[in-house]
Amino acid sequence: MQVTRLSIVAALALQTLLTGCATITKDANQAVRIETYSKGNVAVTGAKCVGKNERGEFATDSSGVMRPHRSGENLLVTCSKDGEESGVGTLISRANGGMFGNILFGGGIGAIIDHNKGTAYSYPDWVRVIMGDNLVYDRKNNKDNEMMLGQSASPEELKKIEVAKAAEEKAALEKAAQEKAAKEAKNTQ
User: Fold this and answer.
1) Cys staple from 91: which of 73, 115, 123, 127, with CB 3.0 to 4.6 Å?
2) How many domains in the chain?
3) HSE value, Cβ hemisphere, 13 Å, CA-based, for 147
């Protein structure tokens, strides 16, 4: 088989496209619907909600859509309204499929790019913040088109979630790397 200049250029272009998979397929910002309720399960409208992660501050009124920059770090959301106690939510970020696809198809460079840009991660899509409460919303439990109610979590429980999250991501990355190595070994036979 003769390798032509055109085939080399095409291969390099394809590799470039695949190495930033989540960067290409995922927006840097994610829509997160925020609703606020009282402890008595009554909707609280017009609360001001601010989300913060290391990439910035993002705001919306409830019930509204916040557009935080994606990140591997959690998003801390605080909602406040006159006459109500503030509601706080910690939205746990999880790696999305784009990061692992990079390892299988594009190599580690794409995964590093997506990790650094934050596009390899997602937050829960829709959360119910309870005014006067402090809850945790783990992306792992996210269901499409369903509001996430959250759970109470002490700092110790939150730390356990973070440790489990890191272990799951590490195991998934190792599995993806093993699958890639097996695929490459099969192709060289």
Assistant:
1) 123
2) 1
3) 13
Pull the structure tokens for residue 51.
Answer: 């989300």
User: Going by DSSP bridges, is the β-strand pair 94-95/121-122 parallel, antiparallel, or unpaired?
Assistant: antiparallel
Give the mean pLDDT of 95-122: 56
Q: Is the model more confident about 30 or about 114?
A: 30
- Is 69 within 8 Å of 119 (Cβ atoms)? no
162 belongs to a structural domain: yes
- Tens of pLDDT, residues 31-79: 999 999 999 999 999 999 999 999 899 999 999 999 999 988 999 999 9
Residues paired with 85 in a beta bridge: none
Domain range for 135 is 26-188
CA 105 to chain centre: 20
Distance CA(178)–CA(169), nearest Å, equals: 14
Surface-to-core class of residue 108, CB atoms within 10 Å of its CB (0-12 exposed, 13-18 middle, 19+ buried): middle
- Select from 12, 15, 26, 23 the least CA-distant residue to 112: 23
pTM of the model as a whole: 0.71
